[in-house]
Amino acid sequence: MPKSGSPGPLYKKVKSFVLDRIHSGEWRPGDRVLSENELVRELGVSRMTVNRGLRELTDEGYLERIAGVGTFIAQSRSQGHPLEVLNIADEIHSRGNTHRARLIYALEEPVSPDRAVALGVVPGTSVFHSLIVHYENDRPIQLEDRYVNPAAAPDYLSVDFERITPSEYLLEVAPLKKVEHMVRAVMPTDEVRRHLEMPRDEPCLLLVRRTWSPASTTKAAVASTARLYYPATRFQLGAPFSVRTGDS
Amino acid sequence: MPKSGSPGPLYKKVKSFVLDRIHSGEWRPGDRVLSENELVRELGVSRMTVNRGLRELTDEGYLERIAGVGTFIAQSRSQGHPLEVLNIADEIHSRGNTHRARLIYALEEPVSPDRAVALGVVPGTSVFHSLIVHYENDRPIQLEDRYVNPAAAPDYLSVDFERITPSEYLLEVAPLKKVEHMVRAVMPTDEVRRHLEMPRDEPCLLLVRRTWSPASTTKAAVASTARLYYPATRFQLGAPFSVRTGDS
DNA sequence: CACTTGAACCTGTCTATACAACTTCGAGGT
DNA sequence: ACCTCGAAGTTGTATAGACAGGTTCAAGTG
Questions:
Q1: pLDDT at A150
Q2: What Rg value do the Cα atoms of chain B yield, rounded?
Q3: Exposure winner among A221, B120, B214, B240, fewest CB in 10 A?
Q4: Does domain A88-234 match CATH 3.20.20.70?
Q5: Strand D: which residues 37-76 of B lie within 7 A (CB)?
Q6: What is the pLDDT of residue A245?
Q7: Is residue A141 less than 8 Å (CB to CB) from chain B?
Q8: Is A168 helix (H, G, I), strand (E, B) or coil?
Q9: Rounded mean pLDDT of chain B?
Q10: Mean pLDDT of A218-225
Q11: What ranges do the domains of chain B cover?
Q12: How many CB atoms lie within 10 A of CB B1?
């Protein structure tokens, strides 16, 4: 994990400066953020750099900016934003709730032909497969059915997934380069319904996530694919964002 | 609709320049895009401006950039991206299919208390309410249940919604400032299931969309709220995006 | 032939400066 | 008391210049 004063792009330092104060609770929704010129003096970077950081945070829904007035912490970043929050434990904790995980199994198995294509490995290879239930305040909130490319995380099976989530572990082992999401509504299978303790006739929100790691040269390898099942009545996916018009 | 050489931010001209060539088919997935310096000469703007335009298109999934190599049209912008494509007709046409709309009703009705809050009007006011089925190649793909704030679009009820979609009309009448989405999985009511010609036991993907118009001073008014129902088996919502790391 | 080196080009980032448009607020005039 | 005007602060955008790090490819070297 990068330290706060670590190298890297300066505009990310601007973003961290603001995000840290939001996450710590020092700045609350509606509060005014330091102006661009104040941040220039505070952080010792140019105004264009500050502007880029704040503009990205605005696009991501954290801030609201009014020309001629100032920059403010956005009122409500709606709950459940897993298209950006990759780690469900973080998301649950940010709601002030407790997270617990139960491992159903984690094993190595030969990959099926279609999954081989999805994972970008040659058919016949063995891949890692884990099934985990995530609880929010002791109520099941997500069933995580995940396949991992062994090339990206060779020690995957020896991780204690009740202490660290697969997302957390994979983020430590390999930085990820790209994420792709598909959202669908499905009826749960009996197994899914049992693990999520769902009543009959309740649908699931299914989030299919593929993550890519930077690989050797020009060809990026898929690191992992996950099917994340959410009970429909306990979850909704929010995505507020400012519009970028200009499309024809 | 703004003309191609119209005023407005120059970085949007860069984006339009590229998007127009993508939409017209002149540039296909995998093709190389003009380099930043070439676009500087072509469009007569500075490199920073070109960079911002291309960077935003990359964030939105249209382009892929490789440092030291070049900029390329992204391979597959996955189907169904209604968090950015606001108009379903555009989306269907971009898949090369035909769009048709059938108006169930469009009327004025007193607003319910909770909907008044959601729309940001005083309870007791009348609002516009329309119900429309959208077809892709003559198969129902979306049921659009929409409430419109009369202040934002006074002539809403006199529009021919089988020729122009509500999204299109509202975009013409009032520029929108913010969009908020919530995605849920639900079981359809009998009415929804009938309009979408869905079998029993099939869930719906429900997209709740609220759009805001820029209003007088400091208080932005909600222009419209829409509940968009998609049959689960005929639709999935895709969201590829490049990761912005740096969050704690 | 195999290898190294360097030029040319690409994207990514940062800076200093500038101007425009907007809001707020107070000073001054009617 | 009311209105107008302008200063000061804010965000939004655009520019020219600079450097770093990556890739490609050809020329030159062994």
A1: 85
A2: 20
A3: B214
A4: no
A5: 44-49, 52, 66-69
A6: 46
A7: no
A8: helix
A9: 85
A10: 65
A11: 10-73, 88-234
A12: 8
The predicted structure's pLDDT at residue A85: 66
What are the structure tokens assigned to A70, written together? 């100032």
Nearest-angstrom CA–CA distance, B42 and A48: 25
**Tokens representing residue A102 in the block:** 């139960």
> Identity (one letter) of the amino acid at B117?
V
Return phi, psi of residue A102, to 5°.
-125, 125
Q: Tokens 């102006």 identify what position?
A: A35
B150 Cβ contact partners less than 8 Å away, ≥ 6 residues apart: B108, B125, B126, B127, B128, B156
Of B61, B57, B107, B102, the residue nearest B81 (C-alpha): B61
- B158-197 residues touching A, CB cutoff 8 A: 175-187
Rounded to the nearest angstrom, the gap between the alpha carbon of residue A155 and the centroid of all alpha carbons in its chain is: 22
pLDDT digits (tens, 9 = 90+) for B159-189: 999 999 999 998 888 777 777 888 899 999 9
Q: Tell if the CB–CB gap between B183 and A205 is shorter than 8 Å.
A: yes
The model's pLDDT over B211-239, given as tens digits with 9 standing for 90+, comes to 887 654 334 466 789 999 999 988 777 66
Q: Does domain A10-73 have CATH number 1.10.10.10?
A: yes
| Dihedral of alpha carbons B162, B166, B171, B172, sign | positive
Res A234: pLDDT: 79
pLDDT for A124: 80
The 8-class DSSP code of residue B60 comes to T
pLDDT tens, B129-139? 999 999 999 99
